[in-house]
Write a structure and sequence with these properties.
Mean pLDDT: 93
Structural class: alpha/beta
Largest sheet: 4 strands, parallel
Number of strands: 7
Strand content: 5-15%
Strand order of the largest sheet: 3-2-1-4
Number of helices: 11
């Protein structure tokens, strides 16, 4: 996609929004959205910007490492903090409002960091695509006064990826990520053991070249969601046998392939539809 006049106007609007802020804390996961936001904010405000990454069992270690490397590579001020959502009974219960309690705990921690460092504003990388799914974390962000520059600039995920690539950011094509707890069905308690099993199982697939996939934890069953292009590979007898054996070693009794493939937000289908 060439940089159309509308996209150029959106990018200019984003720069204007950020330039109106003086000091800024960016909630930085290491994904393309928050990385692009952090990079642009640093271009606009320089030393007035701090990227903060949450470290927790719900986030794969690889994501945390990616965030740290990105900040170092671009010489952006960065801090890692513990978010402590695993100590919250409301989060561990894994109800439909799980993300609200998780986001609230994280933002309380970010507000504390901002206050300690006299930082005026907190922003996160929500974009217009996020408005079309169930996102209880938005309520926590609104309650905390966290800003969403991409939504104000009306930027979509595809547009952010394009601009990140145009600016030479290595993360521009990173698959969409979500916390590991999103692989556990609502109502099934979140435990550190389940999170470790999910991370280990997804690492098995990543190490074998699969991208943009999920392993859902259904007690003794691992349900694998792959993008369409992964189906042909995973059905190779030798590779399929190897994956099954590895996931059984991790602790799953059964390994299933979801024939629909990977669909973002699929676990939300279990919720009552309004």
């Amino acid at each position: 996609m060439a940089e159309r006049p509308l996209l150029k106007a959106k990018k200019e609007r984003l720069f204007e929004i950020l330039s109106d802020l003086d000091t800024l804390l960016v909630a930085f996961s290491g994904g393309v959205d928050s990385a692009f936001l952090l990079f642009v904010a640093n271009e606009v405000l320089g030393e007035g910007v701090l990227g903060v990454t949450a470290v927790s069992p719900i986030h794969p270690a690889e994501e945390t490492e990616t965030a740290i490397r990105f900040a170092e590579r671009h010489r952006i001020r960065h801090l890692s903090v513990d978010s402590h959502e695993m100590s919250l009974p409301e989060f561990l219960a894994n109800g439909p409002d799980r993300c609200y309690h998780c986001k609230k705990a994280l933002l309380d921690r970010l507000k504390q960091v901002a206050a300690e460092r006299s930082i005026s504003h907190i922003v996160h990388g929500a974009n217009t695509d996020d408005l079309h799914d169930y996102r209880p974390g938005f309520r926590a962000a609104e309650e905390a006064g966290v800003l969403s520059p991409f939504i104000r600039a009306e930027l979509s995920k595809e547009e952010i990826r394009f601009l990140a690539r145009q600016m030479g950011l290595s993360v521009w094509n990173r698959p969409a990520a979500a916390c590991l707890a999103s692989r556990i069905p609502y109502g099934s308690p979140v435990t550190e053991s389940k999170l470790q099993m999910i991370e280990a199982a997804e690492t098995v697939l990543t190490d074998r070249g699969f991208k943009g996939m999920r392993v859902r934890h259904h007690d003794s069953v691992a349900r694998i969601e792959l993008p369409g292009e992964g189906f042909g590979r995973v059905l190779d007898t030798q590779l399929r046998t190897e994956i099954v054996e590895k996931l059984q070693e991790i602790g799953f009794t059964h390994v299933a392939l979801d024939l629909e493939g990977y669909v973002s937000g699929k676990m939300n289908r279990e919720l009552p539809q309004k």
